[in-house]
Specification:
InterPro entries: NAD(P)-bd_dom_sf (IPR036291), Saccharopine_DH-like_oxidrdct (IPR051276), Sacchrp_dh_NADP-bd (IPR005097). The chain has 11 helices and 10 strands. It has 305 residues and is α/β, with parallel strands linked by helices. The protein has 2 domains: 8-138, NAD(P)-binding Rossmann-like Domain (Rossmann fold, 3-Layer(aba) Sandwich); 146-304, no CATH class. Strand 5, helix 6 and strand 6 form a beta-alpha-beta unit. Helix 8 packs across helix 9 and helix 8 (182-197) crosses helix 11.
């Protein structure tokens, strides 16, 4: 039910932020030349600055002023584009009005959230409306949780092609470089603060099937701990807990359920971070596991203060 005419094919909301400008740069380098792109944010002056730093292919992109706390600006933003992608977070604080505006307008929506409680609330409040208008709402379109979601899908297809039956026990071993952005830290802090004050959010955070479209239909299969301790693969690679497992595993299980549990209704799915082999790998895995616990404790104490 898309409107017959939209001013833009894709609008990037939050283009003046760190990640937003990175995405804008990627679009400038890779988007088809006839794609009608818009950059949106609260400040036109900052949008002009970002656009001026992009390749010449982006210099005629439209600039759109919009604020997540201004419903009228969000309604106009959503109504003017076929697809809206937002980097404006923390999503629990700023994201829901954007999802709702897109659901009402029949505008396809994507984000980079790794906030399980936000995704759950967006599903509960907007899924029925989005189905009515034809809007497709797709969360977690970044490192959370595209590699996990696609890896399990491709594994399922390979197993299916080989006639080996459904998936039973799957462990994703992640490798990552670098640290966390300021936005990611703020999102973590917000989630911990919410869980501290709301028992419902604490339950959602601990439920491995918290994003299931039908929780009552899920099996009682015991799932791996989101943040375990040090482990070792059959190939001798030492592993540590993976901080994003508490998000990615929920996304993968939701994808499984949305496809009628195509991967296997009793699938056990977990994620860890791969380190190295040998004694050095064991030390590094232990240090990483300890560091993650110290980091989580520090964030919890800060949220409680």
């Amino acid at each position: 039910m898309e409107a017959p005419t939209r001013d833009h094919d894709l609008v990037l909301f939050g283009a003046t932020g760190f990640v937003g400008e990175l995405i804008a740069g990627y679009l400038a380098d890779h988007a088809p030349p006839d794609l009608r792109v818009g950059l949106a944010g609260r400040s036109r002056g900052k949008l002009e600055t970002v656009r001026s730093r992009l390749p010449v292919t982006a210099h005629d992109w439209a600039l759109i002023e919009a604020d997540s706390e201004n419903p009228d600006s969000l309604a106009a933003l959503a109504a003017g584009t076929r697809v809206l992608f937002t980097t404006v977070g923390p999503y629990a604080k700023y994201g829901l009005p954007v999802v709702e505006a897109c659901a009402r307008a029949g505008t396809h929506y994507g984000d980079l959230t790794g906030e399980v409680s936000f995704i759950r609330e967006a599903i509960d409040r907007c899924d029925t409306l989005a189905r009515t208008t034809g809007a497709r709402i797709v969360h977690a379109c970044g490192y959370d949780s595209v590699p996990s979601d696609l890896a399990v899908l491709l594994l399922h297809r390979a197993v299916e092609t080989d006639g080996a039956g459904g998936l039973i026990e799957v462990q994703l071993v992640a490798r990552a470089k670098g640290g966390f952005s300021g936005g990611t830290i703020e999102s973590m802090r917000g989630q911990l603060d919410g869980m501290r004050s709301d028992p419902v959010l604490r339950f959602l955070a601990g439920d491995p099937y918290s994003l299931s479209p039908d929780r009552t239909a899920e099996p009682s299969t015991r799932q791996p701990a989101d943040l375990g301790w040090v482990g070792r693969t059959e190939g001798g690679l030492w592993t540590a807990p993976f901080l994003m497992a508490s998000v990615n595993t929920r996304i993968v299980r939701r994808s499984n359920a949305l496809q009628g549990w195509a991967y296997g209704q009793s699938l056990r799915y977990g994620e860890v971070m791969g380190m190295q082999r040998g004694p050095a790998g064991a030390v590094l895995a232990g240090a990483t596991a300890l560091g993650l616990r110290v980091f989580g404790t520090a964030l919890t104490m800060e949220a409680a203060s």
